[in-house]
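FORM 12-B: Structure-to-Sequence Request
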């Protein structure tokens, strides 16, 4: 993590006050949460609509923070304490991260995409860790606040940082990539997430391709080669970029030639080496995420022949195709962190094709931010369900009802249950479960369907 004198910090953030009496204090690490202060931290308060972190500055320093920032327009700064006055605390955080990144010898991999970016980040970090000292974005720290905090948390001896870049609108990826200055980037795919803000898949593709604007000259761009919206635009790109593609089609640089699906994961072969790779992650769609990660690892001189060790040690972020066991021995796939039509269909395909279960149940909730056609997208999910491969559908939420509406013809009315009360859903669901049951739980994060998973596990 960042370790600098307060004098150095003040220059990096363009301080507006004289910090001479405190300039020799050493800052070690940054936090924006006064409840998580560690000794030596720089506390950065944010002035929000309903709360103001400045009221915790003195308390933070008492708890062990070495210093704090203070936004110039906030009255009554405690001038007897080591505070650094700045025009805007958020801008100062971002600028501090930008300057720290410039001082680090670290190489950076930037990852974005509509679906799969967190899983691809985890896989990439796992593969690179077999040869390098690696740090990665933790949790969902992938936005205009989280990414600067991640950068400031990098150790000076870290060799490669794998940074996830999220967005909700145009310009956000551009900002993040220009701060991170990646040596290589990945765009996992173009889905339907953010249609509400960007209007079309074409708009989403253009927003994701902003990641190229921070890529170093001649750096690597790994793209989903089966996506025409990406390939059309990358061929029009004027910058100096090395392009490699992954996908299912044989036109890609890397594609799977054999796939075998198991209860705990997959094995697969690829086109350029005669090796069976073992991926302990559910879902054949995650093989594509693995291929993107393998291209990145190979770019950093890790041979394909050595990648099985990295794949075996992958640790995925929670609630991404996470296989857990319920109270009665049922198997639960917890994929409750996010959802789009693309990722929803991939998860349903996984459950449909898994063998060895007497009963398969889907618990699906609203997919958010899909724009004016949201009801149609949800109905199409229900209409596409297979009565031969799935037994029951439980839905939660108003848009979940649209999934149920589409599924009643596909599965029959007696196999479809729609709820707007989560407690009622859980009570009904429990009556269908035993040790030979497989349950998929998936929805957008705002639906908090992980509560269903917790209820099934609770004894």
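FORM 12-B RESPONSE
SEQUENCE OUT:
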């Amino acid at each position: 993590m960042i370790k600098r004198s307060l004098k150095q910090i003040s220059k990096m953030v363009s301080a507006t006050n004289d910090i001479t009496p405190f300039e020799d204090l050493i800052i070690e690490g940054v936090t924006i949460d006064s409840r998580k202060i560690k000794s030596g931290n720089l506390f950065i308060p944010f002035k929000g609509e309903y709360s103001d972190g400045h009221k915790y500055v003195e308390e933070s320093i008492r708890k062990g923070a070495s210093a704090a920032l203070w936004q110039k327009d906030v009255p009554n700064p405690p001038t007897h304490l080591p505070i650094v006055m700045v025009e805007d605390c958020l801008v100062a955080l971002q600028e501090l991260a930008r300057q720290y990144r410039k001082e680090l010898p670290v190489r950076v991999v930037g990852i974005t995409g509509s679906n799969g970016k967190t899983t691809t980040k985890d896989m990439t970090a796992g593969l690179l860790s077999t040869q390098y000292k690696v740090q990665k974005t933790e949790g969902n720290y992938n936005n205009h606040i989280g990414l600067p905090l991640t950068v400031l948390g990098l150790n000076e001896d870290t060799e490669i940082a794998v940074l996830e870049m999220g967005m909700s609108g145009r310009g956000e990826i551009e900002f993040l990539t220009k701060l991170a200055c990646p040596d290589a980037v990945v765009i996992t795919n173009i889905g339907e997430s953010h249609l509400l803000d960007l209007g079309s898949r074409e708009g989403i593709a253009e927003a994701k391709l902003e990641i190229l604007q921070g890529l170093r000259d001649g750096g690597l761009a790994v793209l989903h080669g089966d996506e025409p919206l990406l390939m059309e635009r990358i061929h029009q790109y004027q910058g100096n970029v090395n392009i490699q593609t992954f996908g299912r089609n044989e036109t890609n640089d890397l594609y799977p030639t054999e796939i075998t699906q198991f209860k705990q994961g997959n094995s697969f072969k690829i086109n350029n080496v005669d090796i069976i790779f073992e991926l302990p992650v559910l879902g054949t769609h995650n093989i594509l995420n693995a291929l993107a990660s393998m291209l990145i690892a190979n770019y950093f001189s890790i041979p394909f022949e050595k990648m099985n060790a990295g794949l075996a040690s992958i640790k995925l972020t929670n609630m991404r195709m996470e296989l857990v066991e319920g109270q009665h021995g049922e198997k639960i796939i917890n994929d409750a962190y996010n959802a789009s039509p693309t990722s929803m269909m991939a998860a349903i395909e996984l459950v449909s094709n898994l063998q060895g279960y007497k009963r398969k149940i889907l618990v699906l909730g609203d997919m958010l931010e899909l724009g004016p056609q949201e009801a149609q997208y949800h109905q199409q999910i229900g209409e596409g369900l297979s009565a031969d491969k799935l037994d029951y559908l439980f839905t939660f939420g108003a848009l979940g009802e649209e999934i149920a509406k589409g599924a009643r013809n596909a599965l029959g009315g007696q196999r479809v249950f729609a709820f707007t009360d989560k407690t009622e859903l859980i009570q009904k669901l429990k009556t269908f479960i035993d040790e030979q049951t497989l349950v998929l739980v998936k929805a957008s994060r705002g639906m908090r369907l992980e509560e269903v998973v917790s209820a099934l596990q609770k004894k």
